[in-house]
Amino acid sequence: MDAPFQVSVINCVDEIDDQSFIESMMNQLHAKVSEHLKQAPEYFKSADLDIKLTKCTARHFPNEIRWNFEVEISGFINEREFTHTVQLQGSEIGSRKKYSMNQYLNLMNLASDVASDVKNLISKEYDSEEDYIHTGNHKRISDAKFNFVLKILLELDRHVSRQPGQYSSRWRKFRKGRWYLALLIFLATLITMSVNKIFFQHQEWDLTLALMIFYVCPMMMSVLGFIMTHCLGYLIMPSRFFQTELPGQIALRYTGCSSILVVRFFAFIIFCSVLYGTVLLARSMLFQW
Predict the structure, then answer these.
(1) pTM higher than 0.85, yes or no?
(2) Which of 20, 73, 255, 289 has the smallest CB count inside 10 Å?
């Protein structure tokens, strides 16, 4: 579709850790924003946007990884002025050193790292803010980039009052339904076990029986039901939901895989495995335990 969409991304970053990382971020912004505008022509009639990338750092300090992204967006959408600044800043504890599988070596390395940290803390020449390496390929940075782009797309949708698509609305109801179903399974398991153990098997009350009936077994069954329902969602939602709608892209992203077919395959395997385990557990609770 040849829509009148113009999106330009400009590099205005002052602190440059890695030029190739910045360029990849600019390319990602251009591709994602352009694709997002074209996917909803009923909401985005035209757009002429300038995106200034003002901050783009991903730094791994000895025991912490930090990221800082910011863009200034200006221009017009549907001939209405659009000006907005989007920022995402965060950090996470994590050593940048990789340890081996040998526990003895790990202990030695850990002791060495602790001694090095103590030495750096008491040293007047050491500057902790300068002791970092660029780590643009870290998984946490990849997740942060995804969330940053998502914030930009949500601001675009908010500007045109874009409503969730039919698949997004269905997914939202499905997600709520998981919790209702888990609660229903919890109550059903509690009632079924109570009736079975007290009235049919004539077991006497004790602390262990009460704990199993009122907490352990219902909780286990509700968790298994929740997992099965979640996997079922990945199986029944159409491919277009994962390709074009933001909730679908988010769901696909946090499965750790970009292929819808692979996600469905693993969801099917997990669903069948949990279903089999649920049947065995239910049988054990009612007839063997």
Answers:
(1) no
(2) 20
